[in-house]
Amino acid sequence: MKIQLIRNASLWLEYAGHAFLIDPIFSEQGANPPVFNTANDKRNPLVPLPAPMGTWLQPDAVLLTHLHPDHWDAASSEVLAKTMPVWCQPNEGDAVRADGFTNVTEIGESISYEGTTIFRTAGQHGTGEIGKRMGQVSGYVFQAEGEPTLYIAGDTIWCDDVKEVLDRYRPDVTVVNAGGAQFLEGGPIIMDENDVVSLCRYASYTQVAAVHMEAINHCFTTRANLKDRLNAEGLVGQVRIPLDGEWF
Q1: For the chain, percent of residues with pLDDT exceeding 70
Q2: In CATH, what number does 2-240 get?
Q3: How far apart are the first and last CA of the chain?
Q4: For position 224, what pLDDT does the model report?
């Protein structure tokens, strides 16, 4: 297994002989407005792609955790082949088809692809009224013979849904969205440094990779913040914090 962090939560995953593009956003730096109701007016994405867009346009399939524009943007919809297999969570297939894609599958519980099984998992995209407004989100667990079990948690805070996935699958590697995104009111809607520490304490057996950082204007947990906290907690050896474009 090899994973490349492209930018934000966009990943290129090479697993069991196939390549999967996860949550692509290919917009140019600053092409999109700020996320609404946030503490600054910086335009998104905050940073450029780490390589030419064409680097990532020929996966075996595209996998979407949900359709918020920092996980599936208009630029990605425009440049990816419309015959490309696109897998998404329930109730979002029609929106992807409306963009012209003809090979769209909603994943209910799982999907199998040439020896790899991908299980859909639940999460909690914030708390209270904001969490309700953010809607349904998914994560995914990859399993294949001869490969480590991989858990991509998606846009979720530390919660019982994540604990249940860890308990059920005991993943070798867990990728978390750890930018601490939040609005002017309410708490974080994805994990922050406190949540990453909680996950590490709960599941000391899993190697963690922290992404979804320093690319969207409402994400306030930086790589440096997270690294400092992990050092203070003695957990730096359990967590990888890749840079954009980095393989791990």
Answers
A1: 100
A2: 3.60.15.10
A3: 9
A4: 98
